[in-house]
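Example record for the data management plan.
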Amino acid sequence: MSARRTAASGSWSGNGRGATARRVVPVDNQRLDVEGLATIDRNGGRYLLAPSPTDNAYAVFRLPEAEYVGRFAAAAGSFDASSVTDGILAAAGDFSPAYPDGILPAQDGDNAPSAQNYRLERWDVIAAALTL
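Corresponding structural encoding:
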């Protein structure tokens, strides 16, 4: 699959069976770098998470309307902050006492002088911060 940045850039939804795709998140900034989208279902809602490696943050949209609900960043704690993220995954569920309501593994592409690594974020903390 290839993509071009045009006036119709953004995140698109399609079923892969020949149906017409629709743009769910338009992009009006030609410099936006969105990679590795993920979805998560929580409390009857579905959310699209879009990492932005250029500003080390994640945008969250409520589906199916693709309503922007906010953004967050994985801040430094015991480890460095997540940065230059090219991929994420999001999964709801009880993954342990440390991740009781879901987990967000995020690739941390800049971990100099070491190699890249992955950050694990608590979905309940993210959801509470965005009042989801």
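Summary line stored alongside the record: The CA atoms of residues 95 and 102 lie 7 Å apart.
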